[in-house]
Request: fold
Amino acid sequence: MERKKRSWAEPYKIKMVEPLVMTTREQRLRAIEEAGYNTFLLRSADVYIDLLTDSGTSAMSDRQWAGMMMGDEAYSGSENFYHLEEAVREHYGYTYVIPTHQGRGAEHLISKILIKPGDVVPGNMYFTTTRLHQELAGASFEDIIVDEAHDPTSTFAFKGNVDLTKLQSLIERVGADRIPYVTIGATVNMAGGQPISMANLRAVRELTAAHKIRVVLDATRAVENAWFIKAREEGYAERSVASILLEICSLSDAATMSGKKDLLVNIGGFLAMRDEWIYNEARTLVVVYEGMHTYGGLAGRDMEAMAIGIHEAVQDDHIRARVGQVEYLGDQLIQAGIPIVLPIGGHAIYLDAKRFLPHLTQDQFPAQMLAAQLYIEGGIRAMERGIVSAGRDPNTGAQRYPKLELVRLTIPRRVYTQAHLDVTAEVVMDLFDRRDSIPGLEMTYEPRYLRFFQARFSPLQ
Ligand code: F0G
Reply:
C-alpha cells in the first residue's frame, strides 16, 4: 500500500553547530532576578532555547556565508548594493531600494517623509517601533484591524484583515488629507503572526486610491503571509509563493522591511518604493541617519547576504518547512489544552496569558511573569506582548490596556530541531500544571520609550 502523508521536513541539513549550555533552576532564578524579571535583560549565555524573537536569529546558508566573503566594502556604489537592488526588484517589484540598518531605520525615514504634525496613520494593528516613529513624526495611530484579531479564540483565517468600515469612517471623520498613508502589516505580528488576505488588501487598495491615500506595506514577514494566502485563500493553491509575494507588493506604494526576519540575515533592512519623489526624499534623509544611499548602515557583505536571502526565502519548500515547524509546536500545545492564539501564526506561538493565569489582573503583568516563569522552569526565553509592550498614550500618559495579553514563543528560522520544540512544549505543560502558584509582578523601573526592552519588575507576594 502506498503512503500518501509527507511531513514538512526541513529542506536543508546541518553543517555546523553551536553548543548550548544547560543551567540549573538555582542559576536561572538568580539570572532572572538580576534581569529584573525581564527576559530582554537576560544574558544569552544563560538561555537554553532562545525563542525571544525570530529577528536576526536565523541560521544563514552556506551560500549566504560564501556571499559574506564577496563583500565589496567600498564607501559608495558597492556591487553588493546592486545585487540587493536587483533581488528586491525581482521579488518585491518596487522600482527604488534604499538599504537601512534594520526595519526601524526604514520606518523612521518613511514617517519623516510622509507625516506632518496632526496627521493620522491607520494600520492593521500597531507594531511597537512602527507606531513610535509615526508618533515621533507628529501623527497619531488608529487601529483599523478586524475585531477578530483582538479575540485570541477566534479561528478566522485572515485575522490580519482591515475592517473596511473602520477605515471608511475614519476617512469621513478626519478627512483624507490628514491621512498620509495606511500601514499594512503582512503578517500582523502583534495579533499572533496572522495574515491579511489578497482580497482584503485589494479592497484596501481600492478604497484608499479613491481618496488618494498611499499604502505602505510592512513587508517584514510578507513571505509568510504569501504562504498563508496559498494555503488558505481560494484561487491561490497552485500559485508559487514568489508570485503571490509580487502580487501583495503590487497593491502598495512603498514598503518598509526588516530583513532580519523573512530574509534570513542577522542584520539589515530596506525602504522600497515606486514613487520617484519619495525616493529622492529618502535618498536625502538616509545620509543623515543611516549612511549613503548605496549602503544605508550596512556593510557590503550584509547586503550580499540579504540579496541571497531574498532568493532563498521565496522558495516554496523553505517556507512550507518554516511554517510547518511553527505549526508542529502549536499542535502539541493545542492537544495539551494550553490556551494559545488561534489559528497558529507564521513565526511564533502566542500563549494567552489572560487564560493561562486567570487569577492575575492585567496590572499585575501576567504575560511578563509567564515569560519569566518559562525561563525559570526550563531555560526557555520568550517575549511579553501585552500591557508592557503596549506602553502609554503619548499625549495623556495613560496606561494602554490591550485586549491581547500574550507571551510569544518565536521560532528562529533554520535554527532549532523538532526535539527542541518537544522540550519547549513539555516546559509549557509543566508550567500550566502549576499555574495557580504563579504570582503577579510590579514594575520597579519604567523607561520612557519602548519600555518593554528595559523595564524592571519584582514579584508580588
Ligand atoms: N515590523 C515588524 C512587523 C516587526 O516585527 C519588526 C521587528 C519591525 C517592523 C522592526 O524591525 O527590528 O529590524 O527594526 N520585530 C522584532 C520582533 C523586534 O521581535 O518581533 P527591526
In short: The pocket of F0G is lined by residues 53, 55, 102-104, 127, 129-130, 185, 189, 218, 220, 258, 260, 269 (CB under 6 Å).
